[in-house]
């Protein structure tokens, strides 16, 4: 809390200086802006990346510098980006004379502080200053409770269910069969989506209880048919920040193809590093940068592909790249990916084989693919949940539709009650449950 308060005071004062004059005590606005950005990035770097830097120096030089082992301040990645955006916009003359209290609420507004969305001052601070938002709005309360319940259901009923198989495959199992590896990667793909979008729904819902509307952060991203479309749907506010405050300042697409591709690569490597201090995160960002470069080159050639094939390739690229995002070490990622493409690892459980034993040709063919039941951590419930996950993300309406069409109906009240009951019963005897994006 002291760190957040000090950061708010310094950035607010610096922002005021950037808006009021071309110079401040003989220091140019550009110098003030650079100092502000360096200070914010330096603070984030010290707490989040110091040990990563020291570890790599030790590895490269054979030294033995001790790690700092600093505790990561809560939400530092998110409030750092928000305040950098505020400083840049102040430098551009796009901010107004906000009072400190409204600015402090903008930075520390608790529903979105911990894991986003990454809000922008121009969409939030006018809401905090609006007197009408201090009045009770029953429709906002009803919609807020419904969105909160929807997010809670995503988290406890879906994300935490998929987490069991993802954790088993990445962190526990020493070896994986073909089906176990695909179940592991797909489970994490769905866990991450339902965890993060569930948290965002809860943040939007809580904010509505205060008559505040947070920006949309998800729009059915797994329906995307190309990687650019994915980033227009997934973590929308992060994509917006990276575009407006990294990609465009680097030159965007205004300086030729080579610079455009270089800017895309740099932007997504930075995005990967923002998520975590590790080479697996950097490589994940690199992969998405490469995918965007390939997509842009493909588009310039005017080539087309069937929509189903476009979706299939996009989803599987996302699923494979999440493996590096989830893996604690390179070896974990290699373990999962190698098993996903090892056809010699195609084995099924004895229980499953017995289900088709009455079909003679099939049972004869399957004989060499039957393994010991003790080697399997997946079962029919895994398959059913994965099918259900695909159904939810590809067929059902997303949360945004309820923001537009919500009304006081019994079905919404029933869902709120059902979600709370599911949460209650699933928490009885449950182990530790965390939101994945709290780590970033």
Tell me what you see in this structure.
- The chain has 440 residues and is mainly α.
- The protein folds into two domains: 2-108, no CATH class; 138-439, no CATH class.
- 68% of the residues lie in helices and 1% in strands.
- It has 19 helices and two strands.
- A two-stranded antiparallel ribbon has the order 1-2.
- A hairpin with a 2-residue loop joins strand 1 (23-24) and strand 2 (27-28).
- 36% of the residues are buried.
Helix content range: 55-70%
Please state the structural category. Answer: mainly alpha
Largest sheet: 2 strands, antiparallel
Tell me, what's the shape?
Answer: globular
Output the strand order for the largest sheet.
Answer: 1-2
In terms of DSSP E residues, the strand content is under 5%
Number of domains: 2
Task: Give the termini separation.
Answer: 17 Å
Low-confidence spans: pLDDT under 50, at least 5 residues? 355-369
Task: Identify the notable features of this structure and list them briefly.
single chain; 440 residues; mainly alpha; 2 domains; two-stranded antiparallel sheet; 19 helices; globular
